[in-house]
Write a structure and sequence with these properties.
Layout lengths: L2 H10 L3 E7 L6 E7 L8 H18 L24 E9 L2 E2 L5 E5 L8 E2 L4 E7 L4 H6 L1 E7 L5 E9 L7 E4 L2 E3 L6
Parallel strand pairs: 3-10, 3-11
Antiparallel strand pairs: 1-2, 3-4, 3-7, 5-6, 5-8, 8-9
Length: 183
């Protein structure tokens, strides 16, 4: 590389460095200048901005919905006659205040669930359900919801562990919900 080209590269690219070039002859070497393009290191400010965007994206994608620990698509019905139902009723609150009338409350196992029940002022009645699958009995936990299955719904802080009953059984269970469902 001649001096003119070496100066041209040095002026054009500030990232030049001297290199040793070896020829094919055994002990012959010469020093030349070569270009070395480097990427500038990201500064602390850029790293901070990228970190903040990643955290915002992660938090924005999270939700209050708990993942279902079981597969609702796999359904093994209970052999023989279905178990007798439990009928739930009690008081209900939303964010610590007595719940208003004409709200919808329902309950669910994994596969079995109640119909929708309309509330009275501060009370709910006639939430009727029983297990319909082997998973319902093995899992055995009933969850209660304010809202509709198709729309937004809020899970109650309370659950009920299923126990088999010999007759239809009324059960009083007060429910508290952290918020109203979104409209």
């Amino acid at each position: 590389m001649n001096t003119l080209n070496s100066n041209y590269l040095s002026a054009k690219s500030p990232h030049t460095y001297p290199t040793k070039a070896r020829s094919s002859r055994a002990n012959s070497s010469s020093t030349t200048t070569g270009t070395h393009l480097t990427r500038p290191k990201p500064g602390p400010r850029l790293i901070l901005i990228i970190s903040a965007l990643l955290i915002a994206a992660i938090l924005g994608c999270s939700s209050d919905v708990e993942p279902t620990p079981y597969n609702r698509d796999v359904f093994t019905p209970i052999a023989g006659p279905p178990p007798l139902p439990m009928i739930f009723e009690g008081k209900f609150t939303v964010a610590g205040e007595p719940g208003p009338a004409n709200q919808t409350i329902y309950a669910e196992f994994i596969h079995g669930g109640s119909g929708n029940s309309r509330t009275l002022e501060g009370e709910y009645v006639q939430v009727i359900l029983s297990p319909v699958s082997v998973d319902d009995i093995e899992h055995g936990v009933i969850s209660f919801y304010l809202g509709t299955r198709e729309g937004d719904h809020v899970k109650a802080d309370q659950t009920w562990d299923w126990i088999g009953v010999d007759t239809p059984t009324n059960q009083i269970l007060d429910l508290s919900f952290p918020r109203f469902p979104d409209s």
